Amino acid sequence: MNVAILGAGQLGQMLALAGIPLEIRPFFLDPQPEAPGSRVAPQLLADYTDHAALDQLARDCQVATFDFENVPVEAVNHLARRIPVYPPPRALEQSQDRLREKTLFRSLGIPTAPFQAVDSLAELEAAVSRMGLPAILKTRRLGYDGKGQAWLRDIADCAPAWHRLGGQDLIVEGVVIFRRELSLIAVRGRDGQQAFYPLVENQHADGILRLSRPATPDAALQAQAEHHGQRLLEHLDYVGVLALELFDCEHGLLANEFAPRVHNSGHWTLEGAVTSQFENHLRAILGLPLGETTTVGCCAMRNCIGNLPELGAVLAIPGAHYHGYGKIPRPGRKLGHITVTAPDAAALAARLQALDALLGDRLAPDT
Ligand code: AMP
């Protein structure tokens, strides 16, 4: 089976690698020369909206998917008129606009932070007066890793924030107090079968994900998250892996956003779950039975941001698995990740501490 993947970033690379033992032949389309995925599968070097390139993919492949959510919807729709594209283009479209995404959550009864679209400085000031401070002004599109955002702590912050981000469609959100950030990695097959990984606890620094690990099991919280996930999957008639980002608040879970793709907070599943999110995504889009989503021992994932630790030093840590993306180092850039597995929580903590010493960017006291 030949699978077209729009986007040959690290997620594409890991999808392709998961597909090879299943006799899947991946083909990438990415305008970026020498993208990470090109190291493991052929890459068509063209713009996403290049119809000739899309038509070639449609001729060569039986199904298509994508590895990032800002792939132009027009490109995906062009492909979808020729071969099946999963996740469905509609899910991609909803996820690209924070207003549509949050409105969808609301319509499905999935709680969110208070939010409102704002089209002028006066509207922003009125919204903030109503919602209260602090609040966050966000671009509706193309924001990631905390980019395209301005925190508003005082009404006087509105004007400079508006001038910095204005000229784009914007949304303002009330700041919610959360205990921690969680994500739910969900998967739905072509036949409607669903599976959920254990909730993942995520820690960020400077707006970038640094550490993810399965949260201590909490059946009620897991059920609440899966209820929200199920609503979303069924409403979108979704096929593939979907990541739902959540805030764990005093009165329950609030949804922040969803990604219609495999997700950084699910990388630990490569070694820490019976079936990885990458394999399950492929199984789902190809109409194959989904794999088990349970954990294997204890596991955590650390991102390598801006620089990569020395390979030999990482591999000297028991249970450490090195995943490099072949990217040129740049501050703030995700260059790779390291999964650490261990038989128990104490061993995992000790191994993460050893890894911390190599990475040199300490995070939370318990890591
Ligand atoms: P986002 O780009 O929406 O994923 O936001 C990036 C980060 O900003 C999140 O991971 C949170 O840490 C924080 N954040 C975003 N929205 C809110 C909110 N409404 N209340 C509190 N923190 C938020």
Structure description:
The protein has 367 residues and is of the alpha+beta class. Helices cover 31% and strands 27% of the residues. It has twelve helices and 17 strands. Helix 1 packs across helix 10 (277-285). It is globular. The model has no long low-confidence stretch (mean pLDDT 95). The site of adenosine monophosphate has 12 residues, from strand 14.
**Bound ligands, each once:** adenosine monophosphate
What is the terminal-to-terminal distance?
42 Å
Strand content: 25-35%
CATH architecture of the largest domain: 2-Layer Sandwich
Give the overall pLDDT as a whole number.
Answer: 95
CATH fold name of the largest domain, please? Answer: D-amino Acid Aminotransferase, Chain A, domain 1
Oligomer type: single chain
By CATH reckoning, the class of the largest domain would read Alpha Beta
The CATH homologous superfamily of the largest domain is termed: ATP-grasp fold, B domain
Q: What can be said about the biggest beta sheet?
A: 9 strands, antiparallel
Q: How many H/I helices? A: 12
What structural class do you assign from the helix and strand content? alpha+beta
Q: Which regions contain 5 or more consecutive residues with pLDDT less than 50?
A: none
Brief characterization of the structure:
This protein is α+β, with helices and mostly antiparallel strands.
